[in-house]
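Exercise: predict the fold of this chain.
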Amino acid sequence: MHFQIIKPRPALAPYIQHYWVLETTLMDGIVKERVVPTGDIELMFHYRKPFYVLDASGASTFQPRSIITGLTSSWSDVITGGESGAFVVTFYPGAAANFFNFPLLELEDKSVHLNDILHNEAICIEEQIAEATSLQARINIIENFLMKRVSPIAPHDSNLINQGVMCISKHKGQISALALSEQLCVTPKTLERKFARLVGKTPKQFIKIIRFQEVMKSLSGVQPGLLTQHALSNGYFDQAHFIKDFKTYSGYTPKELISQKQCPDLIPEPGKF
């Protein structure tokens, strides 16, 4: 199995955190990984056998050749087998809006075939990536595609979203949507509308995802008997709410994850399978 993280060219660096590439062979057998909510919208291009996905509802499907994945509120299991290859673009929160001119809330809890949005343009990109014979060729194809699509959103909207995301991250998800709107000097309704359109979740939902990610980062060193204290220190009112949120997002209770010693890299270590 080969996994690699790649930085984008400077012109795309304000919008894209990184690319990641995953390739498996028959020798790797079946590779299965739990994927949990993050604050990042991603583009994924398969140039070999697509991934098989099993979601929290029990529904299963093979991914299309190209997809755009919105912000989710639940987990899924992604399974690879045989000759697979995927190239993924991970946007910064709010940055995908510079490439797709529709409300990103429409992608909420969805992975949409890029063909449904870009039609013939998506088919062309899929074919070019499948026919490319090297990683650098795929990078060039995808970066040229992105450079043609970039259309920066209004500076005041960009500043609002960037400041909002930075504030949420600084507080590790322990801030209310109302307090966030007050810090940003906008009305709660305005902030909710901007986040829904440009980020893909309301501020309240996005805050919960970031808080969950912060909990994941620190959970591996917590003893089972200290879970209540850990919940309170991460802004939960009690352990029951902590467990409910954790299981919704990951499919496990915190105790189950600790006992299995899994605490997996369920992202932010980008897209690791």
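Check your answer against the key: The radius of gyration is 19 Å.
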